[in-house]
Specification:
Layout lengths: L11 H6 L7 E4 L3 E5 L9 E5 L12 H22 L3 E5 L15 E6 L16 H12 L4
Antiparallel strand pairs: 1-2, 2-3, 3-5, 4-5
Bound molecules: adenosine monophosphate.
């Protein structure tokens, strides 16, 4: 899918927002939802999405929604840091299939990194154990401030 196109509300994140698909939720306010990535590139890989949006990517988003979203990303990233004590954090965001985007509802990835631990490949890892994801989500949620 190119950068151009219309938002498809059948995408998996729209389904999570409507409660039609499960997610290991970390944090939610009026503007954003954070949940664990089911194909994590590292332990604690978390996604943050806008709740009221029909933007497929960063370029499509209303600046007011984007401002709330990036504040949510920072808040969740701080909680990931506090909960999991990584040595670093990668924060990524892909626009268009050729850039690596696979779900076309705007989102940011928060990926913890540890010295000596290789980063998994984007969208190519195995599915995480849901019980483990729930435990991680609770650990991170406990550190939201
Ligand atoms: P992107 O490739 O940047 O569009 O990122 C989409 C991300 O969503 C990938 O890292 C996938 O592993 C992740 N993902 C796909 N389906 C789900 C799902 N049902 N719940 C949580 N994460 C998902």
């Amino acid at each position: 899918m190119s950068l151009d196109g219309t938002y498809d509300d059948g995408n998996i994140f729209a389904k999570i927002l409507r409660g039609e698909m499960p997610a290991a939720k970390v944090f939610e306010d009026d503007h954003v939802l954070a949940f664990m990535d089911v194909f994590p590139q590292a332990r604690g890989h978390t996604l943050v999405i806008p709740k009221h949006s029909a933007a497929r990517n960063l370029l499509d988003e209303d600046p007011a929604v984007l401002a709330k979203l990036i504040l949510g990303v920072q808040r969740v990233a701080r909680a990931v840091r506090a909960a999991l004590k990584p040595d670093g954090l990668v924060i990524t965001q892909f626009n268009g299939a050729v850039a690596g985007q696979t779900v076309f509802h705007l989102h940011f990835h928060i990926i913890p990194r540890w010295d000596g631990v290789a980063l998994g490949r984007h969208a190519e890892g195995g599915m995480a154990d849901p019980v483990e994801l729930k435990a991680l989500a609770e650990q991170i949620a406990a550190k939201i401030s």
